[in-house]
Amino acid sequence: MMPSPHDHSWNGKVVFITGAGTGIGQATALAFAQRGAKLALAGSSEAPLHDTAQRIATLGGTETLCLPCNVTNEDDLARTLSLIEKEWGRLDAAFNNAGIGQGGTPAASISTEEWKRVVDIDLTGTFLSMKYEIPLMLKSGGGAIVNSASTAGLVGFRTAAAYTAAKFGVVGLTKAAAMDYAREAIRINAICPGPIETPMIEKFLGGAEGLRRTKEAQPIGRLGQREEIAEMVVSMCNPATAYLTGSAIAIDGGQTSGVMG
Ligand SMILES: NC(=O)c1ccc[n+]([C@@H]2O[C@H](COP(=O)([O-])OP(=O)(O)OC[C@H]3O[C@@H](n4cnc5c(N)ncnc54)[C@H](O)[C@@H]3O)[C@@H](O)[C@H]2O)c1
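^ Short-chain dehydrogenase, sequence as received from the core. Prediction below:
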């Protein structure tokens, strides 16, 4: 759903998104930009960030910063958040969305190296992002953080133990940190998408046949679209949802709601 051309609800506000060059992160950057936000776009490689910035410019969006940043590198995050402070002096919302998938390997066969890579990017990267976002939000008078978990942060998925453990970790981190800052006007929630049509899911489902089977298995009979996640993230950050904190919200076409039969 496109916002009304008169929706300027994020005018003058600053939003930081990791993994902003592709998929769900890019769609969310566009959704905030359409409402007037300034966007700080971070990601491990630079070219996709410029693609997102170009799309924002085409939409007539406001200012953007492209900030190459590896979320597993604490120095990168410290530098990135201090650049945002220097440029715009505040941070109103952050979407910690950078992540990698893992699948197709039973738990005991996952290499220790793969385990550490997934936990490092998906869980530690989310922790390090918050570690540098929260102090700037405190200086800004508060803000809203959404962490990217997954339905794999709510239920177990076969052959994806590293990803499932990391995303359960993101949900736990979200809930504990929400308690720490609930009285300081910082809201922290996790979004738990079901399968969304992005390059990540296509890769892990193993091509067209895997995609068809996954669609068939969904209660709603289709995959989600990245724009549907983007709209939910914006609404979780809106002041209108100010009572929402410490929640892990499934947006999954019914995937985790029951067993079809
Ligand atoms: N697509 C799905 O079905 C789905 C479902 C549930 C959750 N998610 C989660 O949504 C998020 C976005 O996934 P997507 O589907 O848009 O995939 P994607 O691969 O398009 O996006 C991931 C982004 O993260 C960036 N990234 C990866 N490692 C990084 C690092 N170390 N530092 C900085 N950036 C890094 C990538 O460059 C990429 O832009 C991920 O956290 C993923 O786990 C996706």
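The chain is about 45% helix and 15% strand.
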